Amino acid sequence: MHNQKWIPWLYLALGLAQAAHSVEEVLTGLWKNMPEVSGWLHAKLAFVPVLHWSVEVFAAANLVIVALLLGFSPFVFQNRSWALWVVRVAAVIEVLNGLIHIIPAVARGGYWPGCVSAVLLFGIGLLILFKMGRAHGPQNL
C-alpha cells in the first residue's frame, strides 16, 4: 500500500506533463507533420486516417486531452477503483506517446516536435505502471 499513496500525485504530474507536452507540440508545429506521419501509418494500417489538422484544431484536441486527464484527478485522489483503471490506461498511452516522439528524435539525430517533454511522459508513465504493479501485483498491469 506504500506505493499506492504516490499514484494520485504521479497521475497529477502526468497530467501536468501532458499540458507542457501539448504546449511544446503546438509551439514547435507538430500539426504540420501530421499528414506525413499519419500518411505513413495509413500506408501500413489502412484504418488509420490521414490527418490534416489546422493549428486551431490541433490545439483544441490537445486542450481536451489535458482537461480530461486533469479532470479525472479528483477521482484518483479519492481512490475510486474505476479511476485507478483510468490511471493505468493513461499511463500506457503516455508511455507510447513519449516513445512516438523520442524515437524520431533519436532516428533523426536531432529535435522532433514534442520530444523534450516526451521524456517526462515516458518516465512518469513508466513510474506509475511500476508503482501500480508493485501495489497490486503484476497481473494488473
Short description:
By secondary structure, the protein is mainly α.
Helices, strands, pairings?
Elements: H1 7-27, H2 34-44, H3 55-77, H4 81-108, H5 115-136
Helix pairs in contact: 1-3, 1-4, 1-5, 3-4, 4-5
The percent range for helix content is over 70%
Structural class: mainly alpha
Number of domains: 1
Largest beta-sheet details: none
What is the residue-mean pLDDT, rounded to a whole number? 92
Number of helices: 5
Poorly predicted ranges? none
Strands, count: 0
From the N-terminal CA to the C-terminal CA, the straight-line distance is 16 Å
Note the overall shape. Answer: globular
Please give the radius of gyration in angstroms.
Answer: 16 Å
Order of helices and strands: HHHHH
Tell me the β content. under 5%
Describe this structure in words.
The chain is mainly alpha-helical. The protein has one domain (3-28, 54-140). 74% of the residues lie in helices and 0% in strands. It contains five helices and no strands. It has helices spanning 7-27, 34-44, 55-77, 81-108, 115-136. The protein is globular and about 40 Å long.
How would you describe this structure in keywords?
mainly alpha; 5 helices; 74% helix
